[in-house]
């Protein structure tokens, strides 16, 4: 069994938002051409594209992240079309005046299961009252909360020459721990093992049984700690939180590149080298995700 806890749903409205930010009036088709990426078309079509891709790689279920605030409807359409294959995540800017309304609608009406906060991107500290309100709205609908911490670089923004004025100080796993302590029934997910803040992510997860770590991406943040390897990262994470709180993910996003098989192979090989039991690997590669999003 294989589930991917971290894929981005780069919809037409995602590209429209980026085009608007760039302010040159480019149509989505032109933007995709510039990137040499497939034009996603309607959400239904993109959802079908994803299902074909997951089938090709024998991936049972995937989290799809609406990757710009306000794009919940795209992922909701994908989930509605393929409810057994997708779990809907959505990005919210907690500082926006409509953040709570969007969270409420996404969780209660649109069937989405996880709100994604990017405190460094949206310049909103996690102990801000507005963040608490968003988490309360998610908690009421039994949704999870994903908080991006550590290094943040958004490839598509770079490729389009968009400025990214991120405040990296705000993506601190220890601040997630504070929030997770206040909402003990809400699962919190820290992606990429904390993206450079591994020690803090492990400390946070050690303190809070409701904090989960996702393994997604090529984890290039490893280069910030001299000598650290992916094997070391998995060994430490397994020792602190165990396989029941580790969620495999790839951070796949656009087509034609599609599902990032190499990430899976690399992580599978690391766990094999560590001699991790098959049952524990099953949890990491799918069981934990199914338990969280049954
Ligand atoms: Zn991602």
Characterize the structure shown:
The chain is built from 13 helices and eight strands. It is of the alpha/beta class and 294 residues long. Helix 10 runs parallel beside helix 11 (230-240). The two termini are 14 Å apart. The structure holds zinc ion.
Question: Briefly, what is this?
Answer:
With 294 residues, the protein is α/β, with parallel strands linked by helices.
Mean pLDDT: 97
Oligomer: single chain
Instruction: Note the run of SSEs as H and E.
Output: EHHHEHEHEHHEHHEHEHEHH
Detail the poorly predicted runs.
Answer: none
Index terms:
binds zinc ion, 13% strand, alpha/beta, 294 residues, 8-stranded parallel beta sheet
Write the layout of secondary structure elements.
Elements: E1 3-9, H1 12-22, H2 28-35, H3 43-56, E2 61-66, H4 72-81, E3 86-92, H5 99-108, E4 114-117, H6 119-122, H7 129-140, E5 144-147, H8 155-159, H9 173-182, E6 188-190, H10 198-207, E7 211-214, H11 230-240, E8 246-247, H12 261-273, H13 278-292
Parallel strand pairs: 1-2, 2-3, 3-4, 4-5, 5-6, 6-7, 7-8
Bound molecules: zinc ion (ZN).
Zinc ion binds at residues 6, 8, 251.
